[in-house]
Write a structure and sequence with these properties.
This protein has 4 domains: about 200 residues, Rossmann fold (3-Layer(aba) Sandwich); about 60 residues, no CATH class; about 70 residues, no CATH class; about 140 residues, no CATH class. The strands form 3 sheets. A 5-stranded parallel sheet has the order 2-3-4-1-5, with helices on both faces. The protein is an alpha/beta fold. Strand 11, helix 23 and strand 12 form a beta-alpha-beta unit. The chain starts with 14 loop residues before the first helix and ends with a strand. The protein is built from 23 helices and 13 strands.
Amino acid sequence: MPDKKRLLPMSVQNFEILRNEDCIYVDKTEYIYSLAHDVAQFFLSRPRRFGKSLFLSALKAYWEGKKELFSGLAIEKLEEGNADAWKPHPVFYFDFNGENYSETSVENVLVKHLKRWEELYDINDNSESLGERFQNLLIKVKQKTGMRCVVLVDEYDKPLLDMADDPELQEKYKNTFKGFFSNLKSCNEYIRFVFITGVTKFHKVSIFSDLNQLKDISLSEDFSDICGITEKELRDNFAPEIAAMADKHHISEEECLVKLKQQYDGYRYHQNGSCLYNPFSLINAFSDKEFGAYWFETGTPSFLMKQIRENNFDVRKFSDKTIYANERTLKDYTGDSLDFIPLLYQSGYLTIAEYDARRRRYTLALPNEEVKYAFYESLMPVYVPSARPGSGLDIFTLEDKIENGDLDAVRDFFTALFARIPYTSADTTFEHYFQTVIYLVFTLLGQFTECELHTFSGRIDCIVQTSGFIYLFEFKRDESADSALKQINDNIYALPFASDSRKLYKIGVSFDSDKRVLADWKVEE
């Protein structure tokens, strides 16, 4: 008899369905026990597609008393002997996912939830205020059931992020939240438990300024692993999937684990916390048996990319560990600030790389290769709108020319690329575009070739190595290509490759800032 097929929880965010269908589940129920046996009310920020919805669904099942769903899990043993465990509570689960807020409104979503619960508990309420209706619901349900209510809010900030390009509507939604969720504080005697999740914690949203009783566990060491998958959890829960993936790619299981770590690991939410794998990407990778890019398929906020360009942000900082933040910066996002670093962190584009205890300073960096390359691919069209796949100015085209040693075609690529850079406002210098585009091109090229990119002073700008060629690039702005070649020769940049059998090219490139063009290109062998 063949072994029973293991079911991966593909797109399954419902805990009850996952358990009833016997899908693989990474047990996080010890955290449910810790939260449920506290008197606090909680807020958690984590990136999208990081397991928040599934965790909230498990919380819902716990508070509804569905003990059978937790058979064999950590919380079953933890609750042994507790007479008060598994008593059903009324649960109000607000889910702001799955809605297009350019077509509907927060008010409509709240009304839909309230109507369903009022029908369930046979409550008639004609109050004009949504906040008042919610308050009445909490009071009357407590009176009817004798149990205090549980309030779970999933992705509260999705409407706010969706409307980031419409400040007026975003402000309206903030005020709606103020009038509605402020009741969580005034109705405390009717509420047993509150858990709110989101990508961001908007500092100026009154849901938080009014709800000062909420305990933010986003940077708590005790809850740093509450979402995501640790290395141990990966090995303990997915051994057959790792073996199958390794077999498909004709590599060892340890080599497969190294590749998975490079691609999907690296998220940290406390300086002493574990490094975490993105669960959405990992599950999809195991399903496809491919080391693909999955997280970014869910969409990259275009306003983030525009902010990076418009603020002349040095994108090289994303890789060289020179982005710093304190705890307040990581927890709060004002929504109207030019500082987009908190949002990049909270959204999962950056994570904690290092921590300086003396300075109480975090160093942030891109977590893994999946994020790194997809992030830069999203940035490239922002700087050069025509540089899209199939345009002839995409990274695949350049990689073909580099692999074939076609230097004339490589020159034509860069000439055309810089000719397409749009003219911008006077305060956006060509130097910023020049440095950024060069950096993006060669970083993206590093997916396919060995590419070492340095800063534009002190050392060779870029070394690209393929199976047949070595390229030493030196870029000059408003200087001659001859001076670039002279720097390569004077500093003997070719010396480490003296005994290498591959063909070596020294390439000096000059850009004209006024004309915004590649002005000169010279090659020595």
